[in-house]
Design brief:
6-stranded mixed sheet; about 30% helix; about 20% strand; globular; binds guanosine-5'-triphosphate
């Protein structure tokens, strides 16, 4: 498959994932640069003006809440997104399992409005564990090549929070061209 590489005039970043993984906390930690325990079910859409983003492109950050939104509303937001961040909690195996059994298949079933819609996997709550989910996640990346990047972060300590949005912008604006892997005959 070959897809064209277009440059967006803006970047729309959508966060999805199981309940309680910290989607809203991640968005609000980015905005306020501090962690708040008491967050709403869904953050308001955030606009970051182009002049403060590395690629000088206005960026919109969109939260998702299963408590407030229907599957139809989720589908519409996925279609509008240039990049989708699938969030799981590193201390919650079930939320990670659902990445490959529910979220990535769901995203595959929603055709992108443009030619390409990359995915970033975000493992939140690293402050709660002393291990990494990298090995498990690399298996997911093998099975779902639309996952272009993964990052572990903590909304509580702010670790990798601004980096996560930076990476999401990058993969939306500079898609990795298709890779052809050819079996080498020795
Ligand atoms: P839904 O609205 O149900 O979809 O949840 P959500 O994914 O938006 O999660 P939310 O931001 O509401 O956070 C869920 C719980 O996890 C809250 O009690 C947060 O305080 C907590 N939490 C979020 N991020 C972190 C983190 O990085 N570390 C720790 N220890 N707790 C976190």
């Amino acid at each position: 498959m070959v897809f064209s590489v277009g440059v967006h005039q803006n970047v729309r970043i959508l966060l999805v994932g199981e309940r309680n993984v910290g989607k809203t906390s991640i968005v609000l930690s980015l905005v306020s640069e501090e962690f708040t325990e008491d967050v709403p079910a869904k953050a308001e859409e955030i606009t970051i003006p182009g002049d403060v983003t590395p690629d000088k492109v206005p960026t919109f950050i969109v939260d998702y809440s299963a408590a407030e939104q229907t599957v139809e509303m989720l589908t519409m937001e996925v279609q509008r997104a240039h990049v989708v961040c699938v969030v799981y909690a590193v201390d919650d195996d079930e939320s990670l399992r659902k990445v490959s059994t529910y979220w990535l298949p769901l995203l595959r079933d929603i055709p992108p409005s443009g030619s390409h819609r990359p995915v970033v996997l975000v493992g939140n709550k690293t402050d709660l564990v002393d291990y990494s989910t990298a090995e498990f996640v690399s298996n997911i990346m093998d099975a779902f090549p639309e996952v272009e990047m993964c990052v572990e972060c903590s909304a509580r300590t702010l670790k990798n929070i601004s980096e996560m949005f930076y990476y999401a912008q990058k993969v939306a604006l500079h898609p990795v061209p298709p890779l052809y892997i050819v079996d080498r005959q020795e």
